[in-house]
Amino acid sequence: MSVSCPQWWGEGRAIAVAHDVRSMHNIGAVFRTADGAGFAGVVLSGISGAPPDPRIAKVALGAEQALPFARVPDLDRLLDLLDGVWVLLLEQHDHSVSLTHAPSPPTGRRVALVVCGEIDGAPPELVTRADVILEIPMLGSKESLNVSVAFGIGAYSSAVTASDGETGLVRNRGRHPLREGVLTRGVTQGEAPSAGSPASRGETNVARSSL
């Protein structure tokens, strides 16, 4: 079955793909980071959980309501969705390149930054499909990072920046003042939504689809 590209995934835009990521907290962190980095949306495939879920909401802090997302039931359909897309796979592999030396994607191409489950890693089919396999240098005693932390590093790297030098994939949507004593603009437990946030405007429904 052919899988069509979601309408919210425009040309030259980047999305996050989480394949077989078990932890709902990690999914929430991917949503929050993808929203912060200006990604067009999130694709959740395989066993990855999806909103609405209180564990996702606890970490995403409303980002799961602000970003559109799509569910893809299996790897075959995910590969179908990624046809023609510039695929960046975060994975430790013999053929990986350092995140600091990764080529920029071709101008105008849709981009997918893909992370997979921490235990099993990326399936061979995704490794073969990837245009670039990215690896984050590990300089200490540990061999890897938490999957959501790795996604955050990759999301703000030059690997997902348009090759013409513009910030077409990681858009600056304007600077907003931070509340006194609060590091980010997320809504913590027991705190009223900040002015201008989707929750404060009553916008709780975003584009959701199953592909």
What is shown here, in short?
The chain is of the alpha/beta class.
What does this molecule look like?
The protein has 211 residues and is an alpha/beta fold. The protein has helices spanning 24-36, 54-60, 63-66, 75-81, 124-129, 147-155; strands spanning 14-19, 42-45, 69-72, 86-90, 97-98, 111-116, 132-135, 208-210. An 8-stranded parallel beta sheet has the order 5-7-4-6-1-2-3-8. The termini are close together. The model is unreliable at 162-173, 177-194 and 199-205 (pLDDT under 50).
Give a quick set of tags describing it.
211 residues, alpha/beta, 8 strands, 8-stranded parallel sheet, 16% strand
Question: Fraction of residues in helices?
Answer: 10-25%
Tell me the major beta sheet: 8 strands, parallel
- Order of the strands making up the biggest sheet: 5-7-4-6-1-2-3-8
The low-confidence runs, each spanning 5 or more residues with pLDDT under 50, are 162-173, 177-194, 199-205
Radius of gyration: 17 Å
Order of helices and strands: EHEHHEHEEEHEHE
Overall shape = globular
Mean pLDDT: 83
How many alpha or pi helices?
Answer: 6
Percentage of residues in DSSP E strands? 15-25%
Total strand segments? 8
